């Protein structure tokens, strides 16, 4: 493959698998929007690949990337051969995975979204993007969740994972930190009610589980309360991304609540 070394081509293959991606501590990022988001957030890039397809989508980006990292120019067919997407958008970057030491600094005013066993990468990406949009302090993914740096999850976040801190932790590791900070633990659950207005005046941790199973029982048993979304249309449930996004909006409203 012209312009791309065998070593880099093998690296791109390893970044598609969670175990080897975690060992490399690198992220495969594709598409102009995601690349620009990561760059603007100060992410560290190892190298980028571009192709003529990018010229039609974002004509300035290829030249601008030279100020960020080494750029290798490929043909559209060559880029497609190493891309993790069916329809590459002309740019791919290999970026260093951001650190997650921020979790140790959780305090009483911290606002967190915590995901439990959310396995769909699109849902995870959307929820990270929502957390960034509403300026949350971070997203914690518990054991059982999909890798948030999975290429599909990164695409779903549109690069927002480089602006909103993300961490993977077990429930046994994160529970003492949350309780030590005095954070109310709210669980998204159809059996609950809307959160009180007092929630919006301090920190909190909002737990969102999968659509079918919700969050694990040990979290429910330690929850401050259950948060539900009124659905007058009679729909039985919403997927994790939709439900979580609505509740994040509700929790971050300056005043009032759903239906106010």
Can you walk me through this structure?
The chain has 260 residues and is of the alpha/beta class. The protein folds into two domains: 6-96, 2-Layer Sandwich (60s Ribosomal Protein L30, Chain: A); 111-252, SPOUT methyltransferase, trefoil knot domain (Alpha/beta knot). The chain has eleven helices and ten strands. It has helices at 6-14, 18-24, 32-40, 53-57, 61-64, 76-82, 121-133, 151-157, 171-180, 217-221, 240-252; strands at 26-30, 45-50, 70-73, 91-96, 111-116, 138-142, 166-169, 185-193, 204-209, 225-227. The strands form two sheets. The protein has a six-stranded parallel sheet, with helices on both faces. Strand 5 (111-116), helix 7 (121-133) and strand 6 form a beta-alpha-beta unit. Helix 7 runs parallel beside helix 8 and helix 7 (121-133) packs parallel to helix 11 (240-252). The protein starts with 5 loop residues before the first helix and ends in an 8-residue tail after the last helix. The model has no long low-confidence stretch (mean pLDDT 91).
